[in-house]
Amino acid sequence: MLDKEKQPIIETEGVEKKYSGTTILEDFDFKIMPGEFVILVGPSGAGKSTLVRLLIREEKPEKGSVRIAGRDITRLKQYELPFLRRNIGIVFQDYKLLPNKTVWENVAFALEVCDLPDSEISRRVPKVLQAVNLTGRENAYPNQLSGGEAQRVCIARALVHAPKIFIADEPTGNLDPAASREIADILEKINCQGTTVLLATHDKELVDQMRKRVVTMKKGQVVSDQKQGRYNSC
């Protein structure tokens, strides 16, 4: 059993990842403890998105281990991956919403593919929409949403499985400052409810406002790891 006080919920050790002979991550060591909120920053090409893909086992490293809750996910069988990904909520810069489904239907679809009964879907969807401030927008289609609303639908869809880990890869990249701040507030709320959050972003203003643990990457390695002033705002 995972000892939450001592063992990381996310940990990489000695990870190396290459694309077409170019090293993206090299001897990469990184860890996050349960319940932390960590912001990952660094220039384009630093390896942030590559790390995210490794954490959801979209890709595998050439060397090293990637552990989630103590288990090396590089060794998972293909049939085990859906269970892993239901325990890791993830959103990206692009929304990837189903255009012919409403807000409600987009979120519900994530449960339907897991064969949950209608009664459970009807219980979960309104709760998660309320959590991301979308009550009243259930019947809107993606083309009727603002960028901030669309991203909040993505967050709701990722949260509907109640994951232990939530990863956001540049979630505010296409948003104005007000919408970005709203997304940040939702991520903080998620974290305060006990979910471990990893946010990868280029948004320096957002990083400065949030004042969390900030891990800086450069050329595939961690070059700085700092806890800022208002570390726990719950």
Automatic annotation (TrEMBL):
Residues 10-231 form the ABC transporter domain. The keyword Acetylation does not apply. Pfam families: ABC_tran. It comes from the Bacteria. SUPFAM superfamilies: P-loop containing nucleoside triphosphate hydrolases (SSF52540). SMART domains: AAA. One of its GO terms (molecular function) is ATP binding. It is a peripheral membrane protein. One of its GO terms (cellular component) is plasma membrane. Keywords: ATP-binding, Cell cycle, Cell division, Cell membrane, Membrane, Nucleotide-binding. GO terms for biological process: cell division. Its main location: membrane. It is found in: Cell membrane. Homodimer. Forms a membrane-associated complex with FtsX. Belongs to the ABC transporter superfamily. Part of the ABC transporter FtsEX involved in cellular division. This is Cell division ATP-binding protein FtsE. It comes from candidate division WS2 bacterium ADurb.Bin280.
